[in-house]
Amino acid sequence: MIFLTGANGQLGQDFQKLFNQLGEEYIATDYIADNGCISLDITDYQVVKKFVAGKEIDIIINCAAYNNVDKAEEEEDKAFALNCDAPKKLAEIAKEKGATFVTYSTDFVFDGTKNCPYKEEDKINPLSIYGKSKAQGEQAVLGAYDKSFVIRTSWVFGIGNNNFNKSIINWSKSRDELNIVDDQVSVPTYSWDLAVYSWDLIQTGKYGLYHLSNSGEASKYEQAKYVLESIAWKGKLGKAKTVEFNLPAKRAEYSKLDSSKAEELIGKKMPDWKDAIDRFLEELSDNGEL
C-alpha cells in the first residue's frame, strides 16, 4: 500500500489520479480532510506513528510542503518544520516499515550563478529561507534512510491549487496590460508529468537524489507569453525585472535543472514545457475552468 501525504496539492492530486488509473492501493492524507483525504498533521511525529501503526505500507510519498516562498522569510519555523523536520521523520518511519520513501525538493536550493543546467552533484547555495529549508530537508532525508528518493523539481503547475499559469489566466481576465519578469529562468513543470515520471523512477529501486522537470527552459515572461497566446489574450504584455517587485525572498536568475540522470534511468525524456502547458490548458478546459 502507498501512503500519500499532501494529497490535496497539485502533485498529490495527480498521484491520486495516476494510482486510480493503475489500480494501486493508497491512503491519501492532508492537513485538512477534504476530497476524500484523511486529516493528518505530518509535523506531529507521534500522531503519524500512530496513524501508520498496523498498516501494510510499501511506499511513502511525501507531497506536503511549505511552498510560500516570500512568507517563509517571516515564518522560518513553519518552513523548516514542514520542509525539513517532517520529511526526516517520515523517512525514519519508512525505515521502520522497510518501505521506500519519496519526497520533493526544489531548484531554489541553487543560487543561479551557473549559466547551464544544474546537475545533482552541483553545489547548493540557497538564497532564501524556503530554499534553505528544502536543502536541509534533502540532507536530513538522505542521511536518515538509504532507501529514499529525493526529487528536485521546478515551477510546478497543475489543476490542483493555485500556480503561476492560473494566476496569469486570472490576471488576463481583468487587465489589459501585464508586466512579467524576464530575469528568472528555469522550466515550468506539469504536476501530471512529475507524478508519472516519479512513479517510473520509483520502480527502478535506484534510490538517491534526482532532478525531474519538463524539458526546455523559459523565463517567467516567456512562460506567461505562451499561456496568454494560447488563450488568445488581446492585451499588452511587457517585461519587468525582479527587483521592481521588492519581494521578501531572493530568487535565482537561472535555476534550470538537468533531468538526464533520471531520464536515462527510466528510458524516456520529460516532455517539453510548452507541450505540458498545452495539456494543462486542455485539462482546465475539460474541467470548465477555462
> What proportion strand?
15-25%
Instruction: Examine the secondary-structure arrangement and name the CATH architecture.
Output: 3-Layer(aba) Sandwich
Total number of helices:
9
Helix/strand order, N-terminal first? EHEEHEHEHEEHEEEHEEHEHH
Distance between the termini: 36 Å
Q: Name the structural class.
A: alpha/beta
What Rg is obtained from the alpha carbons, in whole angstroms?
A: 19 Å
CATH homology-level superfamily: NAD(P)-binding Rossmann-like Domain
Sketch the major β-sheet. 7 strands, parallel
The total tally of domains equals 1
How confident overall, as mean pLDDT?
Answer: 97
Q: What's the β-strand tally? A: 13
Give the fraction of residues assigned to helices. Answer: 40-55%
Question: What's the arrangement of strands in the largest beta sheet?
Answer: 3-2-1-4-5-6-11
Shape: globular
Characterization of this structure:
The protein is α/β, with parallel strands linked by helices. It has one domain (about 1-165, about 185-215, about 255-270): Rossmann fold (3-Layer(aba) Sandwich), CATH 3.40.50. The chain is built from nine helices and 13 strands. The protein has helices at about 10-20, 45-50, 75-95, 130-145, 165-175, 190-205, 220-230, 260-265, 275-285, and strands spanning about 1-5, 25-30, 40, 60, 100-105, 150-155, 155, 175-180, 185, 190, 210, 220, 235-240. The strands form four sheets. Strands 3-2-1-4-5-6-11 form a seven-stranded parallel beta sheet, with helices on both faces. Strands 7-10 form a two-stranded parallel ribbon. Helix 1 (about 10-20) links the parallel strand 1 and strand 2 (about 25-30). Helix 1 (about 10-20) crosses helix 6, helix 5 (about 165-175) crosses helix 7 and helix 7 (about 220-230) crosses helix 9. The longest helix has 22 residues, at about 75-95. Its EC number is 1.1.1.133. Pathway: Carbohydrate biosynthesis; dTDP-L-rhamnose biosynthesis. This is dTDP-4-dehydrorhamnose reductase. It comes from Orenia metallireducens. Pfam families: RmlD_sub_bind.
